[in-house]
Every structure is written in structure tokens, then in C-alpha cells.
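Working notes for the structural subgroup meeting. M.R. asked for a predicted model of this chain before we commit to crystallization trials. I am recording the input and output together here so anyone reviewing the notebook later can reproduce the run.

Input as submitted:
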Amino acid sequence: MKHAVVLLSGGLDSATTLAIARAQDYEVYALSFDYGQRHNQELKAAQRVAKSLAVKEHRIVKIDNQIFAGSALTDNLDVPKSRSEKEIGTGIPITYVPARNTIFLAHALAWAETIPAGHIFIGANAIDYSGYPDCRPEFIALFETVANIGTKAGIEGARIQIHAPLIEMSKADIVRKAVELDLDLSLTRSCYDPTPDGRACGKCDSCQLRLKGFREAGVKDPIRYARPVTP
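Returned structure, recorded in C-alpha cell form:
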């Protein structure tokens, strides 16, 4: 059986990526991170998704958030709200967490060598996204190169592949793929600034991109929002 480490935040994209890996007959090891993110309710979502998709093992790794200062997701800064689609697609927003995907993939690589697993899946997307530089195809391709020249497995010929199956999909296509794979989308959480009782704000970039995807796919978003949202 093929083994894969899947980065699982608990959001729409990572959950769909996990469902894709399972559908491709990988034995899945899910990896999530507690890095002091203000939206840490996503970790509960990750646990729910991992359980529903019967992963082989799910680990939550704690990272000291002192190295992630300067982001609205980890620092005492306001999360941008109600930005236009043009604003969301321009520049790198304050919700960018420095080198986050590089750090997450490095942890996934270490675990993959340990298992051993020759495959790593990440839910990076470069179409309907917030402009993060570590979600682009060239980043994924170069990290795969690093993985294979900087590990014992790679040097000995056990090539490690980095899969980003959503990289060129719109949010609507991602929602459709999730529905096709019978993923329970009510288990997922995407909001950057949820209410204390777990409702999504509906106004942050992540909420707006999620809602856009559901709207364009013609699918009702099953999660709760803090205020009425446009269907």
C-alpha cells in the first residue's frame, strides 16, 4: 500500500486534499499544527475530518508562535474584513504567516522519512486564494527538489513526491470535488476570525473565498455564520 502524509488544517482545501488522497488508495497519515493561531478551532475541525476519513494516524504538532510574529493570524493585529475580490487578489495580506508552508512541509518531510512514506499532500491553491507566495506551483516544485536532495530517502533513491492536487482549481471546483468524494463539508472550518462559539465571521478573506466557491458551485455551505450571508 502507498503511504502519504497529508497536511490537514481542517479547512475546505486541506480536507478535500485528504479525501483525494484516500480516494487514490493511499494509507494516510494526517498532520496538523498548533502554532498559536487565533483560529485554532480549525484543529477541532481537523480532528473531525481525520476521524471521518479513517486516517491511519493523526498528529497535531505544536510550534512556538514566537517565530510567527507579524501576522494577523498569530499576533494582536486585526484580520482584514469585507475586502473586495480585487483587493483579495492583490498583494500579500497581513494574514500571511511567515514561511508557514515551508515549515509545515519540512515537518511533513521528516515524518514521511520516518514512516516511511514516499508522498506528501498539501492543499495549496493558486487560483482563488489570498496571494500567499508559498501556495504557488513553483514553490511546490522547488520544495520537492529540496526534499529529494536533502534527505537520506532521496539520496538512496526512494523519491519523495509532493502532491498539490488543488493548485490550479477554483474554489467552486474544489467544492464540487469535495461533493463528488462525499466529503462531509459541515466538519470543515475556514474562518480566520471565528466567534467564541465557533461561528464563521463571513467577512474575512477566507470566508469570502469559501462562500464564493459554494455559491459558484451551486452548493449550500453547511457551516454556521455569525451573520446572514449571501447564498
